[in-house]
Fold this protein.
Amino acid sequence: MSITYLREKLGSSRLRAVFGITILVATVLLFIEYGRTHPETFSQIGAVGFGTLGLILLLYVLFIGTNAAILFINVRMCSQRISYSNGFLLNAYSTLVNFFGPLQSGPGFRAVYLKKKFGISLKSFGIASLFYYGFYAIFSLCFLLVGFTQVWLGLAVLIGVGALTLIFIRRKLKSNEARSLIHPKLIVLVAFVTLVQVFLISLIYFTELRSLDATVSFKQAIIYTGAANFGMFVSLTPGAIGIRESFLLFAERLHHIPEATVLTASLLDRAIYFVFLAGIFAVVSLFHVQRRLSTRPAR
């Protein structure tokens, strides 16, 4: 590996980090300005009942549970097993890393940990994870296509994206190591858990949107979910702050939710998720998870 190549990679990472930080700062400033010029936004958020907040937090707990289930299945696809306690703690800690770390680095941390503790190669875990991301993209697209009035156009887009996804995965499965990861029952299980996860996300968004605007339908929340999920694939900022909101505003013609409701719901979701992350941080600190999951060699 040449020094020139390393310099190019480091330069690219720095550029993406600077770009992500710029987007994050600009988005925070825009949120502050929006709140200043629209004081009713914070009044709406403050009027959300504790029952609604509790329900959203519970749905987020279930969402993290599906993440843990995907982790267990992916490890099993690599012919290894991870204990429930380690799996949940690893998932909890990587959730924090994914949000606060650079460029959504949670999956990378999981891959490095599994390589050190279980000898799972980065390539094997990466390919196993591709099945999850592939199903996540396809289901999110299906949710988004509910907003198309022309059914034939929606089906054409779905078939096109599905074909590209399958071609991409097939190319990654050329080696014997990759083919050994194909377990039909486990792949079907990944698809089912991923569908449950995307459905849970739609319930979270529907609950938030309805708490602000009683006219929002579940169909609109489904389309809203599809648009929001695609924002996570190009995330350059913590929690896709700014990226997700841009996708939601661009998709307004599909979900027909007013811009003001989208921005207020986004602020509400961010606030609740920070509370949820604070709970995860408390659990991680209580069990000394950072030390238990350390990927550094012992001295």
In short: The chain has 14 helices and no strands.
